[in-house]
Amino acid sequence: MNRIYRLVWSKSRLCWCVASEFARHSGKRGRALVVIALGTLGLLLVGDALAADAGQYVNDSADASCVVVQDSALSGDLDWKYGGNTSNCESVSKPVQATRMLASGNPTGDAVTYDDDSHNRISLGGDAYDAYSHTGGTTLSNVANGVDSSDAVNVSQLNDLANTPMTFVGNTGSVDKKLGDTLFIEGASTTAGTYSGSNLRTEVDANGHLQLQLADNPMFDSVTTGNTTINENGLSILGGPSVNFYGIDAGNFRITSVAAGDIGFGSTDAVNGSQLNATNQQVQQNTTDITNFNYGLVGPMQRTGTDQLSLIAIGGDAYAPGASQVLNNVAAGAILATSTDAINGSQLHETNQQVNANTLNITQVDNRVSNVEGDITTLQGDVKHQGDHIENIYNSGTRYFHANSSGTDSSATGVDSVAIGMGATASHDGSVALGAGSVADGSTLGHQAFLLGGTATGEVNVGQRRVTGLSAGADDSDAVNVAQLKQVTGASTEGSVKYDLNGDGSVNYNSVTLAGTSYNSASRTGGTKITNVARGEHDSDAVNMAQLGETNALVTNIDGRVTTIEGSVTTINNGGGIKYFHANSTQADSVASGSNAVAVGPNAQSTGKGSIAMGAGATSTADGSVALGQGASDNGRGAESYTGLYSNAANTSVGTVSVGNAATGETRTLSNVADGKEATDAVNLRQLSGAVAESKQYSDDSISHINSNVANVTTNVSNLDNRVTHVEGDVTNVQNGTDGMFQVNNTSHLPKPKATGNDSVAGGAGAQAIAESSTAIGSNAQARGRSSVAIGANSVAERDNSVSVGSAGHERQITNVAAGTAPTDAVNVGQMQQSIGNMSNQFYDYTDSRYNALRHDLQKQDDVLSAGIAGAMAMATLPQPYSPGASMAAVGLGNFRGQGALSVGVSKISNDGKWVTKLQGGMNSQGDAGVAVGVGYQW
């Protein structure tokens, strides 16, 4: 290959230098003045290579319009002439090396020159090149093979490139494709739809191989394999099972190989056939037990005849029941004439208690009138059950109990009420009307309404008759006799405030004189203080100290007579006081520290908001309270909300007015008090005496009426004594469990049943209903769980809301269980067996179907994965060029577990050999296609 030289300017040596075309520039910058590229352009051929070496120094000079380039070291021994406008410039020596040179300017003859001084373009002569016919243009011959990236290439290099195939390497083979050949990268899918490569990507491994990778967790909107579809709604099989957010639809197929589920509280596991079979066996046993129990063949209660039941002791049976048993936890039966309910111990105990009370009341009836109503009410119920013995009472009465009247019959319409006598009416619940014309309606007593300390639960009306022989009442609800009322009358007149009397003895409602020491105006002693006086509003109203204090405050500002007031104030501060308002004391000054408070008097203290303390040492600490008088104190009582005693009216006070001190026992009399008019006015002694007198008269009249009827009641009660005796005998038998519709045999002498839980029931000897709302029936039965039921001797119900017919180690069967119909009904063995059979068939069918579908899906998925692996292998086998500037087209094949794939690719290495680019795609036997591209940089 010929050497090619060029002239370059060396800034460091300050000269033009001849350098090889392939010499590298060193330094920050350089510029070629004239580049002679003989090898590349083929414009000027030189037979032999120039003898100069790269970097030889030359000098230039002028010679008849020619530029002479000389070797400075040889003084012109080696020189060339470059002509700007002529081709006749010749070298003056070395004719062998003479040549014709090219410089810038207009071309002449066969010279080839740059188009302009920029030296960026050269236009060759000749016909214009036709790209369609490939004719015209100028042929450059003898072009050497290009080496550097900027060298021209010749036809032989292009032919070599065109004839060099690109090899596409796959995992299982490769394919060669020349430039211009077609490389097919196809997919086998022909189904219309949406396709994407969101689950695929290309990766360059450490060996520079471009790999097609599938996401470890690929995401698909929907996957369909045969009849199976998986999407965001779940998994569905055409004509088969489905799984979605709401559960699994077995599609009437059987599920097999189900592991044993957890059987416990809160468990949501599925159970298998073996577990259900165990349950069926237990249910079968329970069904038999329930059947025997229902027919009375087993259990704590068995049939001994068509209409007979017997409580069975442990070890006994219907023919030999053994020791008598106690039936516990028996609910309260209805006590009616037609009732067939069993009566429990608590009901019988209540009856016994009432009978005992009746016996005591009957023997003491003359002194216990207050209990007659309850006794008669109880006896009335007892008498109703006496049958034929009282059949003739209505027409002719009974011994010691008769009525002689042709008037209106008595009427007892109130619940538990009694009416005795012609026209007697008892309409209020629990009331008693004794005597002809008596009315007990619950709202009046002696035709006058009263409410004493609470709400009455009943009433006794004797119809304007006197009640005699009445003992002194002891409790709040007892009747009082005249002697007690006289004591009240005498006590009520003491300490009361009364109006003054006129000369004729009549009441003077215009004058009230309060008792106590007469007031001495000179010494300002004596008299009686009035406390809790409201603020006066009208001319005739009394004013309180608060109003007087306000007036005093205004008086101090009258007329603006400051000079006179200053002297008066000095006098006041020294204890001299003011006109009509003085104080004589050497004690500490009063203090009103509460907001809007008033304190008047030596050492008076008013600390409560809006409080008043008037008097030496008076203290008012509560808001809105008033303390009047020496040492008076409100004792901290301020605003209060309470129910008034005897009135039952709601009260909300704003404060307390005190004229004494509860802590020290100091009190005062409030005298000259006018008669109260409104409900909240104070009453005086005169009013209280009148009220007591009226009450006394009413009591006397009422007692007289009661006395007249007590004699009749005594006679009637005596007639009931024999009947009560008979009732007692019946009650005793019922209490011992030897009579009635519910009997027990307590041979073992077990204790009585105990129902200690709230609203619980216990029936049977030793039965215990301990928990709330529990029920225990049977000897020693125990109901410990809330709302639990224990049935049978020694049965134990420990869990809440459970029913137990036995205990641990002593279980019982529940037999004759009807088929359940509601969701909460018990099921019998027949239902359970039928359900198990149906479920088993469904489980088997569903499991077989799911197994076959799953096996098909796995096989399909295995083919898809194998095809994907084959595709990756096919792309991995694609080769790539190895030399700089080379390109390659390659084809690869792959096969994995019977699935095949074809891949093709095109790769390119940059001219400097640093960058490698590669594009490849593939298609597998499942119809899936993929494309990958990669770029790499090597160093």
Outline the structure in words:
One of its GO terms (biological process) is protein transport. Residues 879-939 form the Trimeric autotransporter adhesin YadA-like C-terminal membrane anchor domain. By secondary structure, the protein is of the alpha/beta class. The chain folds into four domains: 1-152, no CATH class; 164-266 and 818-939, Pantoate--beta-alanine Ligase, Chain: A,domain 2, CATH 3.30.1300.30; 276-337 and 739-817, 2 Solenoid (Alkaline Protease, subunit P, domain 1); 346-491 and 700-726, Alkaline Protease, subunit P, domain 1 (2 Solenoid). Helix content is 22%, strand content 19%. The chain has twelve helices and 45 strands. The strands form 13 sheets. The protein has a six-stranded antiparallel β-sheet with strand order 6-7-42-43-44-45, with helices on one face. It has a five-stranded antiparallel β-sheet with strand order 1-2-3-4-5, with no helix packed on it. The chain has a five-stranded antiparallel β-sheet with strand order 10-11-12-13-14, covered by helices on one side. Helix 4 (345-363) packs across helix 5 (372-384). The longest helix has 48 residues, at 829-876. The radius of gyration is 64 Å and the shape is elongated.
Structure at a glance:
The protein is an alpha/beta fold. It has four domains: 1-152, no CATH class; 164-266 and 818-939, 2-Layer Sandwich (Pantoate--beta-alanine Ligase, Chain: A,domain 2), CATH 3.30.1300; 276-337 and 739-817, 2 Solenoid (Alkaline Protease, subunit P, domain 1); 346-491 and 700-726, Alkaline Protease, subunit P, domain 1 (2 Solenoid), CATH 2.150.10. Residues 1-5, 20-62, 70-108, 365-373, 383-391 and 444-457 have low confidence and may be disordered.
